[in-house]
Amino acid sequence: MQRILVAGITGAGKTTMAQALSARLRLPFHEMDSLVFNGPDWAVDPDLHQQVAKIAAAPAWIFDSFGHPEVRDLLWTSADTVIWLDYPRAVVMPRVLRRSLRRTLLRERVFGGNVETLSSWFSGDHPAWSSWTQYEARRAEINRRTTDPRFAPLNVVHLRSPREATAWLGGAWPRPAAG
């Protein structure tokens, strides 16, 4: 486990897991959203592909992402391990709602100095909406990729609950999990 993607739907805890793995394995952590959104008004970095390609060429890294569309295949072909946080909607939705509510009320600055606003809650791009509407499609896409020969031989760790993830992170790893 040297090149790790932590995949899952918005609100699953990808960043938290990736940071914990980074600390435990002493591997560099890269927050995908910080690379994607590097300016005001949620502007996408025009040099995203080049930045991610440079990181992906390194011998070791951890990304907290299934991959932004522009760099998804690059990351999946470069990774040796995918940690799939495949939690039920009943787990991820309260998490993403609490996080977005906190960010909105406290005006927390996130990627590129941006903030989640009350009006952004009514946009299809808002994390809560995207988590809800993309839930099944994201699960299906990650499942497809974990069995796609293009991305073999990936070590896939499929974690289906926060309890299972905590136990795995606490010592029952590294081990491949059955799809």
UniProtKB/TrEMBL annotation:
Transmembrane segments: none
GO molecular function: kinase activity
Domain of life: Bacteria
Keyword annotations of the record: Kinase, Transferase
Classification via PANTHER family: TOXIN, YALI0E33011P
Protein name per its UniProtKB record: Adenylate kinase
